[in-house]
Amino acid sequence: MKCIERCAALLECATETEWLETLLRLGSEHGYEKTLLAVVPDRVTLLENAFVRSNYRRNGAAPMTARNFSTLTPSWPTASCAQLP
Is the pTM of this model over 0.90? Predict the structure, then answer.
C-alpha cells in the first residue's frame, strides 16, 4: 500500500482520539517509535498556537524534536515516503 493511501485512514476517523491513535500507528508502521505533528495555518501564526499532537513528553523530547517544537523550519528524516514499506 502506498504512503498516501495509508494516510487516507486519517480522514475516516470519527473522533480526535481515534485520529491520534491512527496517526501514531502510521508513524509506528514507518519505523518511528515517537511521532510529532505540529501545524499552523500560516507563517504569521505563533508556534505556541500550533495544533500539536504527539506521543513525546515535551520535557523528555530528543534534541531534534525539541528544536522542531520551537521552529517553523523542521528537521526532516532522510528517508522519503516513497522509500518506506
Answer: no
